[in-house]
Design brief:
Number of strands: 0
Protein name: Sugar phosphate transporter domain-containing protein
Organism: Brassica cretica (Mustard)
Low-confidence stretches: none
Keywords: Membrane, Transmembrane, Transmembrane helix
Radius of gyration: 29 Å
Strand content: under 5%
Order of helices and strands: HH
Shape: rod-shaped
Helix content: 55-70%
Mean pLDDT: 78
Distance between the termini: 84 Å
Structural class: mainly alpha
Length: 68
Amino acid sequence: MTFKNVSGMIVAIVGMVIYSWAMELEKQSAKALSTVKHSLTEEEFEFLKEGVEETTHSRDVELGHTKA
């Protein structure tokens, strides 16, 4: 076993450790994203509803008429 062989093995092991560490970080970030809420609260729902009601009386740009 030469120095070149030993250093190659060390580099390979360090690469495997870094790769494993990076994959664990990616898994943790994916878990964090999956815990984001997917439903609206009553307050958020009311805000959306108000926004829709305000935009229903907008003007038709092509014809210049008010939409109802």
